[in-house]
Input
Amino acid sequence: MTVPAWQKAASFATRCHRSQLRKDGKTPYIAHPFRVAMALRDVFGCDDEVAICCALLHDTIEDTATDYDDIHRRFGEQVADAVAAMTKNMLLREDLREPDYDARLASGPWQARLVKLADVYDNGHDMTKTMRPARHIERCERALALTESDADRACFGKARAEVSALLEQLRSR
Output
């Protein structure tokens, strides 16, 4: 019996993030990639295997000791390229990092941009009432801008509508 790639990705991501917690200091970090994958599948209606694996693995290169080659070896080039597009280059100054990240997302695989929408969707719903939404509003706006040319691709319409609705909620706080 062959184990599905998403199941391997879920196990690998769990091992990679095993000792990490969310900003609340209580929630295991792995809850975030799992919720991103579930939002992708259950809210946005995407069942693309590369996208689901990318959702599960999207923070492994940026936040763990994992590198591109680890992802490539285990999950192949498509998944590795999508995860790499979701990874900020921490060698750059912050004022250069975000434009570089946006440019790589824009030119990267469509799955990475869809995962970015799921990422901001999950982070927006995970914000506590005491957090100021201004920074997250900017992230939602940037994710929506990056996906304007993808609007006609399957799943993007629903994803963009959900992130737009979240954006309106954040603006009304």
Remarks:
- The mean pLDDT is 94.
- Residues 36 and 118 are 5 Å apart (CA to CA).
- The chain has one domain: 5-171.
